[in-house]
Design brief:
GO cellular component, one term: cytoplasm
Radius of gyration: 23 Å
Cofactor: Fe cation
CATH topology of the largest domain: Jelly Rolls
CATH class of the largest domain: Mainly Beta
Helix content: under 10%
Strand order of the largest sheet: 5-18-17-9-14-11-12
GO biological process, one term: tyrosine metabolic process
Keywords: Dioxygenase, Iron, Metal-binding, Oxidoreductase
Number of strands: 30
CATH superfamily of the largest domain: Jelly Rolls
Strand content: 35-45%
Bound molecules: fe (ii) ion
Number of domains: 2
Largest sheet: 7 strands, mixed
InterPro entries: HgmA_N, Homogentis_dOase, RmlC-like_jellyroll, RmlC_Cupin_sf
Number of helices: 3
Structural class: mainly beta
Amino acid sequence: MQRQVGSVRDVRYQTGWCYHNQLNGLRTNSPHVLPEPDSLPPGVDPDRVREQELTRAGFIPSADHATAYLYRAHSGPSWVRDGIQAVPPEEVAPFWITGRVRPPVPQACMPRKYHRAPDDRGHAIRNLRTLFYNPDVSIGVTSCTEPMPYFLRNADGDDLFFVHEGEGVLETEFGPLGLEQGYYVWVPRGTLYRIVPDSSPLFLFHLENYGEKFQKPDTGFTGDAALYYHRNVEVPTACYDLSAGEYEVIVKQGGGFTSYRFDHHPCDVIGWDGDLAPFRLNIREFKPITSWRAHIPPSAYCTFFGYGFEICSFVPRPAEHAERSLPVPFDHINQDRDEVIFYSEGVFFSKDSSMSGSLTFHARGFSHGPHERALQRAMARRDQEGAFMLEGYFLLVETNQPLSITAWAETLEDKDYLNSWQSTP
Ligand SMILES: [Fe+2]
């Protein structure tokens, strides 16, 4: 299949959170009014152009309401061959667990660690592996060496990817977004997308969100520019393909998969606008609020929140360094939240070694804190150096509802993790 762009270096963006205009020269002054024929690009038949709304929250104005208006070159796919067929999940994504339809499994109240998943050959959806799930969110990883041979339309949830290693392009019907190390890339549910690696392997953290669309936390007195600014949010520019031929689209719904066959390229959107679009954000643009005297809790690092969970970004920051201050997290019992950390780059401030690509799961109700060696290391630096930096990039997901652990995750578990707090300085 022809790529939307030659490589990640060729992707162009617009910036901002809310209303976007990628009408791409189409002249239509209102939704539900078709573009004027003489504003259509060459090769587009005016009689076949249609508007399509991609919307959520059932058109009802609410915090979750958002709509994209897509202007398509084709009035609708003509089903060819067998048209539409259910496909067994084990053929499409055998390790992708849809938390919203999967009964929960009680977990032991204990901390767990999972080794970095092995790199897989093949494409990103076939290799997507869920480790944790609840009715609000599924959390996992994927890696790939090949482009997806079809476009996916996930009707179950929004897909959030975080690029841990490698690079590539996430093609969508809105246009392409670059997959570069350290970027969050958000795909609203229902958006056609395809992951194309430029380097092998491309290793991604994945989160599927079943509730409201992600929001930036309210930064209150600190203002709109706090944490990150809308200028840091990058949105695709329109990119379409008018090719005829047979193309497959797979729709995910209720944890099942359905194959559609199109008689034209499915990314035939010649222009679009609205307040719903995929976006990406570089974790390096996250600017944490810090204190030199008292440890700031993880909630201050919230980057996105959805219904029932938050995603926090731990990035390089000056450590707390006033006399007797704690430069690493305090011991805590997170009484009503589960915690998953994905370790991307560097030595985590509460640990004593690099855990790149691995994850930990700390169940609610379990008392935990920094490893003794990490605590001693940080206190020694505070005493010797005064102000010092904590380095590295890490993701934290906190969930309201208990997470279940998948059978596949158990194959990666480091059973000695529980004993790692017993080590002496
Ligand atoms: Fe914790």
